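FORM 7B: Structural annotation worksheet

SECTION A. Query
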Amino acid sequence: MTGTCSTAHVVEPGDTLWAIAEKLRGVALEWKTIFAANVAKLEEVARAHGFASSDDGHWIFPETVLVIP
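SECTION B. Predicted structure
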């Protein structure tokens, strides 16, 4: 049986999806994978902070818990 393993990451001040991907997945370009796994949450949090959207993950906010696939 094959499964997927994921972990959680709490966004800290100054974090970017690029940096999180590089740190936790070893490849910065994997930010798109992290964005795709968390798009609904990122959009919700961005709207709660007064933004129309997260601008494809450009706007992420501290204390947001992200799933890292």
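SECTION C. Observations
Residues 31-48 form the longest helix (18 residues). The longest strand covers residues 7-10.

SECTION D. Sign-off
Analyst initials: ____
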